[in-house]
Amino acid sequence: MASILEKSGFNPDKKLKIVGTNPVKHDGPDKVTGRAKFGADLMLPGMLFGKVLRSPHPHANIRSIDTSAAEKVPGVRAVVTRADFPELPFGTGPGDLSRNIMAREKALYDGHAVAAVAATSEAIAKKALKLIKVDYEVLPHVIDVRDAMKAGAPVLHPTLRTKGVEGAADKQTNVVERLVLAVGDIDKGFAEADVVIERTFDSQPMHQGYIEPQGCVANWTDDGQVDLWCTTQGTHVFRDRLGEILKMESAKIRVTQSEMGGGFGGKTGFYAEPLAVVLSKKARRPVKIVLTRSEVFRGTGPVSGTHYRVKMGCTKDGRITAADAELLFQTGAFTGSMYFNAPQAMFTRYALKNIRTVSYEVVSNRPKVNSFRAPCVPQIVFGVEQIINELAEKIGIDPIDIRLKNAMKQGDTTIYGQTFGPIGFVETLEASKKCDHYRSPVPKGQGRGVAAGFWFNRGGDTTGSLTVTPDGSVTLMLGTSDVAGSRLSISMMAAEELGVPLDKVRAILADTSSIGNNRVTAGSRTTFSSGMVIIDSARKVIKELCRRAAIIWKVPEDGVVFEDGFCKPASSNVGEFAPLSIAEIAAKTSVSHGAISGHSEMNVTGEGPGFGLHIVDVEVDKETGRVDIKRYTVIEDAGKAIHPLQVEGQYQGGAIQGVGWALNEEYVYGADGRLQNPGFLDYRMPVASDVPMVDTVIVEVPNPNHPYGLRGVGEVPVVPTMAAIANAIHAAAGIWPDSLPMSPPKVLDWIEAAQKR
Description:
Layout lengths: L27 H6 L14 E7 L5 E7 L1 H4 L4 E5 L12 H9 L4 E2 L5 E7 L2 H8 L3 E6 L6 H5 L25 E9 L2 H7 L2 E9 L11 E6 L5 E5 L4 H12 L6 E5 L15 H11 L3 E4 L2 H7 L5 E10 L5 E11 L10 H5 L9 E8 L15 H18 L3 H8 L18 H10 L1 H4 L6 E10 L4 E9 L5 E5 L7 H13 L6 E5 L16 H28 L6 E4 L2 E4 L10 E2 H12 L2 E9 L5 E11 L6 E11 L6 H20 L30 E6 L21 H13 L5 E2 L3 H13 L1
Parallel strand pairs: 1-12, 8-27, 10-11, 14-15, 18-19, 25-26
Antiparallel strand pairs: 1-5, 2-4, 2-6, 3-5, 7-15, 8-13, 9-10, 9-12, 13-14, 16-24, 17-18, 17-23, 20-21, 21-22, 24-25
Helix pairs in contact: 11-19, 12-13, 15-16, 16-17, 18-19
């Protein structure tokens, strides 16, 4: 059945009863009492335990692997290496993915998997790992993105050639791609500027920091089917990628998602799952693999490290005339950094006529990077939003006013070609100027900074269904993973559509064999996209309810209307009938006419771009370089807050993760190319005492393309954080930070350098 969503989208006159309230999450009690099942919780009869052997070298040819001694250990049921995986060509998506899962010709980073064991206990599996002999030819390695681009740098992939560069076909390189985006005439724009600022910045990789490490159980059955239970942000993506790297039909693979203890983009890619599947095939038993925290840091994907230059100019009255940037992105050992987001988003808060960006994606001997909220954008906005503040300071204009003067509005066109409909950036900036935090005096000894952020938000391939049970309650079947409470928000929209109490609606996270294809849960798309298909499904159900009421009353179908959970006569001319509830219609017709259900499959479009502004006060200890966050406020346009407390939680969570990235979090490598801080003891994430309560202001400029006006809110809250803190540090200490994280040693160096000038 085709979509029956109203073309008009958002209806501002609709009176809402459930959307916009704050009910308790359905899954909350099980999570706080420990009953919820996460990736490591599943146990199957006869299950084996898998462990992974990882390379201690950042770059080495693998001459041979001898597993004979490990295979003889009592209790070992299977050992797998590169030889157990189909050979796929380098430079293809499946080929690169397969090589990242299990090293082939070379180990390409410290922590790269080279073998795996399944045994009757973890202790036996660990013992067997120690007996595997790998003959390595250690090669020179390269860690820094700039070093990787130099002539004579160690080459990771001899057959790699740079896309986007003429004459690259015959040159070995570590540069995967060069991307140029441009609009207007930057030379003309800079000529018009009264003030021009050009600075360079860098950032180090940081980890998403999810509390739950990856865990999975795989079972390869005797008839060649695969069951995989895992913690994932994309069951269908996992299924299809497994099919590609194992050369299997997707229909033979069923992926079931467990509850998820955090993801933030880091669980969009798989690591141990293919190893567990192949071990299970070889052992003919179910296999569980749960990564240790060290393995999470060494063997999964952090965010991209960068080095970049930004140049911007403006007139005396604050009009930004031109922007230019050169961006280098470290992608780890394989392509996939999503670096192209940055040149599209880095200036997109501002209606600029003249922009040019040149971006490079570069491999190095680090783990392949993975997504994190607004992938590749926050670390670049760190530099851009500092320059905006510096321009404002030089011409003597309020930092929010310069943003208002240049703000994107409806009708403006981006560097990537989108012309915006109604957006809420101006309203967000105006709300920021009016909020108590911005209007209050800056406490003595502190500095205040502001910065703005943008994210495209996403739609994409989405499927869902809604079924009315004979007692009138409602079951939703969703194919998108619930990372941060989307089940509740989607259930609220279904209840609103059907006019039933929320406690009559329950959402189930379906496995890949129970529902059609769904894109990964990422990019702030889930509540928007699954909400669209469930609303569409609900409206199909309403149409069927009206049809059945017409049958019961023996009247024409157009003689029935649906209002507030009841089918009613459309007019007195139809007849005098008591309204029928959903439960009554279901009870009367489920046996005779079958189930009442609606399903919807869409490539969802119409997502609403998101904008936000952060205000932060900090105190800088000029003797130690320590930065303390004293006050924090997030102002962001949600379009419509379906569940305001969950929206506030997204705002606060993004800001707190950004605080860690801003002040402490980074991967530290030694001269030997090995990760020095693969655990929470040495990888410094914020704790409660490091941060204040984050205040929030929810701006609501409805997205006209969604029936409830919502915009995604998961990515924007982290985008401005590091820049806002940097600008606050400048206000407190008179320095312009140029490197992430802004850890105490760096801050102290900047202060001492400024004092010498």
